[in-house]
Design brief:
Elements: H1 18-27, E1 31-35, E2 41-44, H2 46-51, H3 63-72, H4 83-96, E3 100-104, E4 110-117, E5 123-128, H5 142-149, E6 156-159, E7 165-168, H6 170-173, H7 190-199, H8 210-222, E8 228-231, E9 237-244, E10 250-256, H9 258-276, E11 280-284, E12 290-293, H10 295-300, H11 305-308, H12 319-334, E13 339-348, E14 351-363, E15 369-378, H13 380-429, H14 435-466, E16 474-477, H15 479-495, E17 499-505, E18 508-511, H16 513-530, E19 535-543, E20 546-553, H17 587-598, E21 601-607, E22 611-622, E23 625-632, E24 637-639
Parallel strand pairs: 17-19
Antiparallel strand pairs: 1-2, 1-5, 3-4, 4-5, 6-7, 6-10, 8-9, 9-10, 11-12, 11-15, 13-14, 14-15, 16-18, 17-23, 18-22, 19-20, 20-22, 21-22, 23-24
Helix pairs in contact: 13-14, 14-17, 15-16, 16-17
């Protein structure tokens, strides 16, 4: 698909005329100038004169004249206070060539200056704003011109009047460069170059319609209409500048604009997001003058965007809020900090509302704040919702407090007559004459005891909720408390014919003794309630700086979906206990409430049909594990 011919080496390069040379110079991205043997400038492009800020009307200035003009304008900061020495060294380098010199200009631009002496005494001087070195040559001679072309950083090629490739530089013909996969040969026709590019998949927009694309591209080549953008593989983009030369040939320069296109795409995406955002967004300078606003901002403040951009963000606020904006937000933006809060907005006398505003700063590479941005919305609806929520919360808390006080009062008043009923039952039992009567009396006593337990438990919950029970944190040894538990539950376990073991500790703990005792008692009562066979164990383990007090049972266990809810009020799980004892599921609820007040962790491990382990973890002051009390039912032994 390609035409072959002689290689584009210096020996086969075709001659150029002055008009073609000027056109080539103007297409270069570097500053280039040619000086004759008398050191007068023969030709240059605009970038060379612009970088050296030379605007003298004379036609053929010398290189020294250009440098002295720059010194007069303080263009070369490193020459200050040593101008003569600097000028002498720069002129010597210009005449001798062979080296590149980095030069900082007062405009802030850093250039690499390379001078290339040519046969006959001419010199080519190249100014480049990048760090790549430029190889140049004597543009008046074909051999040296080929070397100069190789120094051009952008892919560069010239096709002659017969549309055959005359010359191109390394970035253009390198198969890993501008046109990867395209076999570029000297003398090939432009048509063959396009066909090869199509076969290599270089022209993304041609895929699926290669022939139509080819026809359109050839038409553009015959009648160039100026630079155009072209998509390349791997997300690359180039700006193709194709110009007709005076002799009928064509100059092509392809400049990589991938980074620019990426930046444009990112800006377009960001702008689309900002434009569609329901949140009002404004960008403003350090003084608060609006630079940009999105449609949501303009709807919020009842303004047209063109009008908004001419105003100041502070003008949309009340006088008090405007002063706050100037005294708080503006200094924060200058310091590169953020600000968030509510201000009173009043874009006009008929529209006033609380405005939630979050402002931040955008900084340049030096860390200096260059402008600010703000996200805003009408806070009135949110503020009203917050007020309604607070009102509802307060009402719920009042209702809950009232309910708790009512239950506490009822529980307390009912407990007294129940105590009396228990005394009467005790006296009545001694007067009964047969077993049947005594059995009925015992059932009545159990029912009264169950009601007493329920009311006492509910009273305890009420006291916790009302804050009547407040922790009294002290340091105390754990062994006496566990001894009391051993005495209290040994007989009850024996009555159910189950084992009860206690492995105590001589550790000193830091907590509320009364509340902790109630937690352990409720855990043991819960274990005793559900355990029909096997046994119960009360023991202690040291875990770091804490003591974990554990209650093990061989009951039915707890299903996974019940582990959290078993601590809820009136929840006894799904297990049906065949015992005649009664309960309503408040014991573990009290355990949870008391542990929360004390800041103690409650943990449960369980396996269905195997049993459960409940534990409470308390801080240790002094340590000692299993070296004190040991109690086990059956043998009725107590050892300390």
């Amino acid at each position: 698909m390609t035409d072959t011919g002689a290689h584009d080496t210096p020996d086969t390069l075709q001659p150029f005329d002055a008009r073609r040379l000027s056109t080539v110079f103007d297409a270069l991205s570097d500053g280039v100038a040619v000086f004759g043997p008398d050191d007068r400038m023969i030709d240059s492009n605009e970038k060379f004169l612009r970088l050296f800020q030379f605007d003298d009307p004379q036609d053929t200035p010398t290189f020294e004249t250009i440098l002295r003009a720059g010194l007069t304008k303080n263009l070369f900061p490193d020459a200050t206070n040593r101008e003569d020495d600097w000028l002498a060294r720069r002129l010597q380098s210009h005449r001798e060539g062979g080296r590149e010199a980095r030069q900082m200009l007062s405009s802030g631009v850093t250039v690499l200056i390379s001078d290339h002496p040519m046969a006959g005494g001419s010199v080519v001087t190249v100014l480049r704003e990048v760090t790549d070195h430029l190889n140049s040559g004597d543009l008046s001679m074909p051999a040296q011109l080929a070397v100069a072309i190789e120094g051009i950083t952008d892919p560069f090629a010239i096709f002659g009047p017969d549309d055959r490739l005359i010359v191109c530089n390394q970035p253009f013909r390198n198969r890993e460069g501008a046109y990867p996969g395209v076999d570029i040969q000297p003398g090939m026709r432009f048509e063959s170059f396009l066909r090869s590019g199509l076969e290599a998949g270089m022209f993304i927009e041609a895929i699926g319609g290669e022939e139509n694309w080819f026809k359109n591209r050839m038409a553009m080549h015959r009648d160039p209409g100026g630079p155009f953008e072209q998509a390349w593989p791997a997300g690359r983009w180039v700006l193709v500048n194709e110009q007709r030369l005076p002799d009928g040939g064509t100059l092509i320069v392809a400049t990589d604009i991938t980074e620019r296109k990426k930046a444009e795409a990112e800006r377009a995406q960001l702008r689309a997001m900002v434009e569609e955002s329901p949140e009002a967004i404004a960008i403003f300078d350090i003084a608060g003058s609006l630079i940009f606003t999105n449609p949501a901002h303009d709807r919020l403040f009842f303004t047209e965007q063109a009008t908004a951009r001419r105003g100041n963000l502070g003008d949309l606020l009340t006088p008090t809020a405007r002063r706050r904006f100037m005294n708080e937000i503006t200094p924060a933006i200058v310091q590169g900090e953020s600000w968030e809060g509510v201000l009173d907005a009043a874009p006009d006398p008929d529209h006033a509302f609380p405005l939630w505003l979050k402002a931040g700063a955008v900084r340049d590479d030096s860390g200096r704040s260059v402008f600010g941005f703000a996200f805003m919305h009408d806070h009135a609806e949110q503020a009203e919702a917050e007020r309604a929520l607070l009102t509802a919360k307060a009402a719920a808390e009042d209702a809950n407090q009232m309910k708790t006080r009512l239950i506490a009062a009822i529980s307390h008043d009912l407990l007294q007559p129940l105590h009396g009923a228990e005394l009467f039952l005790h006296g009545l039992t001694g007067m009964l004459e047969n077993d049947r009567q005594r059995e009925i009396a015992e059932r009545i006593r159990e029912a009264v005891a169950a009601v007493q337990s329920i009311l006492s438990t509910q009273l305890g919950l009420s006291q916790i909720e009302l804050g009547v029970l407040s922790p009294n944190i002290t340091d105390f040894p754990i062994k006496p408390l566990l001894s009391r538990m051993a005495s209290e539950f040994t007989g009850r376990a024996a009555n159910k014919r189950i084992r009860f073991s206690v492995f105590a500790s001589n550790a000193t703990v830091k907590t509320d003794a009364v509340m902790l005792e109630r937690i352990i008692r409720n855990l043991l009562s819960n274990a005793l309630y559900f355990t029909e066979s096997g046994g119960i164990l009360l023991g202690c383990r040291k875990r770091g700086g804490n003591l974990r007090i554990e209650v093990w049972d061989s009951g039915p266990g707890i299903a996974d979906d019940q582990r959290e809810t078993i601590f809820d009020e009136f929840n006894r799980g799904t297990t049906v206990r065949p015992s005649e004892d009664h309960g309503v599921g408040l014991g573990l609820a009290i355990v949870k409430r008391l542990a929360q007040q004390l800041g103690h962790g409650i943990d449960v491990e369980t396996r269905l049909e195997r049993g459960s382990r409940f534990s409470v973890t308390v801080p240790i002051v002094g340590a000692g594990i299993r070296d004190g009390l040991r109690v086990q039912t059956g043998r009725r032994t107590i050892r300390s």
